[in-house]
Write a structure and sequence with these properties.
- The strands form six sheets. This protein has a four-stranded antiparallel beta sheet. A four-stranded antiparallel beta sheet has the order 14-13-16-15. Strands 3-2-4 form a three-stranded antiparallel beta sheet, with no helix packed on it.
- The protein folds into two domains: 296 residues, no CATH class; 231 residues, no CATH class.
- It is globular.
- The protein is an alpha+beta fold.
- Helix 2 packs across helix 4 and helix 2 packs across helix 5.
Length: 646
């Protein structure tokens, strides 16, 4: 569920290293140029990366002095890591990836953040290349999956902006600022490298150490650094500020709807793009991706012009330094400086996030209280990933239609359970925008109602103390049955809410078990210090045992509820079947909590008073657990009765 500061694979993502990129060598001068592609014409094998050779041309042989430059155009050169349908891996250029997407299983980067950033880049490219993809056009593309995305439209758009995709260009390098000074060392570009005072566990790079990168690797991290770089002090530009803000993408779990092929995945996440009609929300006619923007664009804080601007947001100013190494062109340096700060409201501009209202959100003044009573909602915040508890706990926000979120308004003092002190105003929710189209097309019959998609959520967690260091990378999956996406039955939300609340409540009981035991046995224990440790990320031993047991069982529950809802045509489900599914979930969660409590008791010191105290707290846990389970059962039975006809 959580990743560390090192690359990690998913599924059949990577089996063996893929070959390095080919390179283009441009030789010539004063307007005369020739392109030599290695391996063509001369019979020479393709090298593993770009080469720095003058191709044997002497001064004047091209009508000039024989100036040599290099090119690595991301539209053509292999740099996007893909998984084919047979599980083999390869790297492809942007155009080939999109035109062959229906023959590819997935796009998978070195880390979850790389995967997320690369998908966002491809979605921006598709949005501009295909133009407005309304529901009718979307259905045409979906029905023609054997043909993939229209190659003519992709190639026409690529031709217009080809000059902006050259990673090694001296005038308009891709996602870079050519006016920046050169630097030695690539640690600032690669997140798991140690750089300056940002030490990492498994890397011991030193400042100034070259650690050269192949152009394809550097390109992937270049895209990622704009989306997921840390905040804090960066290399200043001239007399500019050293301080930088965290990119907007770091503030939420990026949700990707995954299909059977990369073509399905990209199409499922493609929004209707019509800037002239402000679609999607907050998109203006000024919207453009980074490669269409002037190279010397402003860096003052501003709002995003629209969807593709946000997808390719230039949160940093970067310059890569290339050099010849043993006859190959490598990236041996990278300078990363503060870029443009985003002032857009995520709720309005970001469409790959889910939003929720926090349970306990104190209004700042009386006017805000009045406004919330009027709107019956509180401020929405993006759903983020949690290293321990899992993003499945936010299934209401991720899957269900926009509405006020269900909660339990009862009280039970002393245990810190979910029914303690809830606000009178029901919290709201908002799912990722692409799911609205899927639900709509499922309703019309364009998509099957029994389909089960996968929501893959990517995120980055800061280390304790702020956003200056990365604590972990996350990638989680939640099943997204179409029957739940289109469910008009409000009881579904209550049942899912009950299921999540049961797990939360039992986790609270486990925390109470350990906390009260420590309070009795540890003379240095104070509630204030304990609360501070919890805020800083301290996790109780029993919780660490409990939460990892639940994601699989919850995914099974979602599928069973979806099957019942689909069988009823979305009109009300099967109450008895829902009770059976919830009872199965109850048994799995209670069993997991009991095992976690038993393991904790067995690990305590088996001596005199200590053992007796642990056993007493174990019995208290059992009593509190029974209260939670009985409350859950009453709620489920109360919500599964068919609604009365009006």
């Amino acid at each position: 569920m959580a990743g560390g500061p090192h690359p990690q694979a998913r599924g059949v993502a990577r089996h063996a290293p893929v070959p390095g990129p080919r390179a283009r060598l441009l030789s010539g001068s004063w307007g005369a140029a020739a392109t030599i592609r290695w391996g063509q014409g001369g019979g020479e094998a393709l090298p593993s990366s770009a080469r720095s050779i003058n191709a044997g041309h002497t001064a004047g042989s091209w009508g000039g002095s024989g100036i040599t430059t290099h090119s690595f155009n991301l539209l053509d050169e292999p740099w996007l890591p893909v998984v084919r349908m047979d599980g083999s891996t390869a790297t492809l250029g942007v155009v080939e990836t999109l035109t062959q997407a229906h023959h590819l299983r997935a796009l998978v980067g070195e880390t979850s953040t790389v995967t997320s950033a690369l998908h966002r880049l491809l979605l921006a490219f598709l949005s501009r290349a295909l133009g407005t993809v309304d529901d009718l056009r979307w259905q045409e593309l979906w029905s023609a999956e054997g043909e993939g995305f229209p190659a003519s439209e992709l190639e026409e758009y690529a031709g217009r902006w080809r000059h902006r995709f050259d990673l090694l260009s001296s005038e308009q390098p891709f996602f870079q600022r050519p006016e920046l000074k050169e630097a030695q060392g690539t640690a600032a570009l690669v997140a798991f490298r140690a750089a300056k005072n940002n030490a990492t566990l498994f890397d011991h790079s030193r400042d100034g150490e070259p650690r050269p990168l192949r152009p394809d690797v550097a390109a992937r991290w270049l895209v990622t650094v704009h989306a997921y770089d840390t905040a804090g002090t960066k290399t200043p530009v001239a007399r500019g500020s050293k301080k930088s803000e965290a990119p907007p993408t770091t503030q939420f779990g990026c949700v990707l709807i995954e299909g059977a092929t990369l073509f399905h995945t990209l199409l499922l996440n493609l929004l209707e793009y019509a800037p002239q009609r402000n679609a999607p929300t907050s998109t203006t006619e000024e919207d453009r991706p980074a490669w269409e923007a002037p190279i010397a664009s402003e860096t003052a804080p501003r709002r995003a012009y629209g969807w593709t601007d946000l997808l390719t947001w230039q949160s940093r100013r970067v310059r890569l330094t290339q050099a010849d190494q043993d006859g190959e062109v490598m990236i041996q340096g990278a300078v990363v400086s503060p870029g443009t700060c985003c002032r857009s409201e995520l709720l309005e501009a970001e469409h790959m996030a889910a939003f929720r209202a926090p349970w306990f959100d104190q209004p700042s003044d009386s006017s805000e209280v009045a406004q919330r009573k009027k709107t019956k909602t509180s401020s929405l915040r993006p759903v983020r990933l949690d290293a321990l508890r899992g993003v499945w706990r936010h299934s209401q926000e991720l899957l269900l239609p926009p509405a006020q979120r269900w909660f339990k308004p009862r009280g039970n003092k002393g245990l810190g359970l979910s029914m303690d002190g809830f606000p009178e105003i029901s919290p709201a929710r908002l799912r990722p925008s692409a799911l609205e189209r899927i639900a709509r097309l499922t309703d019309t019959g364009a998509l099957p109602s029994d389909a089960v998609y996968t929501l893959r959520i990517f995120g980055q967690e800061w280390a304790t103390g702020g956003s200056g260091m990365i604590g972990a990378w996350h990638e989680e999956a939640v099943p997204a049955p179409a029957a739940l996406l289109r469910a008009a039955n409000p009881r579904i939300g209550r049942l899912i809410g009950n299921a999540v609340a049961l797990a939360d409540d039992l986790a609270s009981v486990l925390r109470s078990l350990e906390r009260r035991y420590r309070q009795e046995t540890d003379e240095s224990f104070t509630r204030k210090e304990e609360s501070q440790k919890e805020r800083e990320g301290f996790r109780y031993e029993s919780e660490l045992q409990f939460w990892p047991q639940l994601p699989g069982a919850f995914a099974e529950l979602l599928r069973e509820l979806a099957a019942l809802e689909d069988g009823a045509g979305g009109s009300g489900g099967d109450p008895r079947g829902e009770i059976r599914a919830l009872w199965k979930w109850r048994d799995r969660v209670v069993d997991g909590a009991d095992k976690a409590a038993d393991r904790w008791v067995r690990r305590q010191a088996r001596t005199g008073h200590t053992l007796l105290r642990a056993s007493a707290h174990r019995e208290r846990y059992r009593a509190h657990r029974q209260l939670v389970v009985k409350s859950f059962e009453r709620e489920v039975v109360g919500h599964t009765a068919p609604p009365e006809e009006s």
